[in-house]
Amino acid sequence: MLLTREEMTFPFGDAKLDPNRDRELLEWMFNQFLYGEVTGIQVGHWLYHAPDLEAAKFLARQSLEEMQHVDNFLRIMTMLGCQPKPAHPAVRFLATGMMGGSWAEHVALEMAQGEGFVLQAFYAVIDTLDHKPTIDILRRAVKQEERHVEFGEQQTAKAIEGRAWLRRRLLGLSLVSMWGVRRIANYMKKRLPADHVVLKHLPAFLEHANQCAALRLRRIGVLDRPLEEVGGGKRALLVAEAYGGKLLGGLVALITLPFRLLPWWKKKRVTDTYLRDPHITGYQLPTPEMDRATAQPQE
Predict the structure, then answer these.
(1) Residue 3 resides in a domain
(2) Is 129 helix (H, G, I), strand (E, B) or coil?
(3) pLDDT digits over 153-174, tens only?
(4) Nearest to 64 by CA among 102, 95, 37
(5) What pLDDT sits at residue 252?
(6) What is the CATH number of the domain that holds 163?
(7) Does a structural domain hold residue 144?
């Protein structure tokens, strides 16, 4: 990866999340992770658009890993006594609403940046949660997430080579994703106790996550200077240009909007129905025998 674990780590000090005291918070947090892993179904779309066989093989493996992560979070939530519930709208926007319209947008926004945010959140939970079984699961999962981020970085660098217009578009769209992270931060600041030993660090942690996202954009080559040197007016123009490039698709979406609003017309995907899925509603912790039967090679 272009950023190290040390660069992406936020210094929480000795602050810890307690599985009993903080169950409500952990339930909210792991439901956001659960939704993010369910969006792994979107990998199937990009498998069809892979530029070569190596990329296709990577995505085929990734789709399986994302579905394994769904079970990982169901296991964690069951151990902690948490219930599956809907994800926050801002999380749904970042994970599904920001789904790319091209291969370059996918690898930049969903893999390098989006999974980069998720990876930092995994690191934060590993560093703060006082629950070894959960930490053991997440330590294995981060190895896969790191590969996903690295793939996104490499593919983005290939895509933007010699294409200044694409660098601008990806930067504009990335600014929107950073705005989404700030929306989540504002929600949590209003709804969660500010004097909590861990939560009091939340605003600084999310600002650090956005700083890491900007640094990743520089190292990929999407951004040619520190983001602080890009003024508000320039940022607004970049966002406008990015979405202006999507204008045609937006017009098509507008024309078809009345039909898409009809519930019998809109196709329901797993990201819409997963909370009613028997695999979610009837999930039980695997027995040791089941674990051995389904064990994956350890990395």
Answers:
(1) no
(2) strand
(3) 999 999 999 999 999 989 988 8
(4) 37
(5) 45
(6) 1.20.1260.10
(7) yes
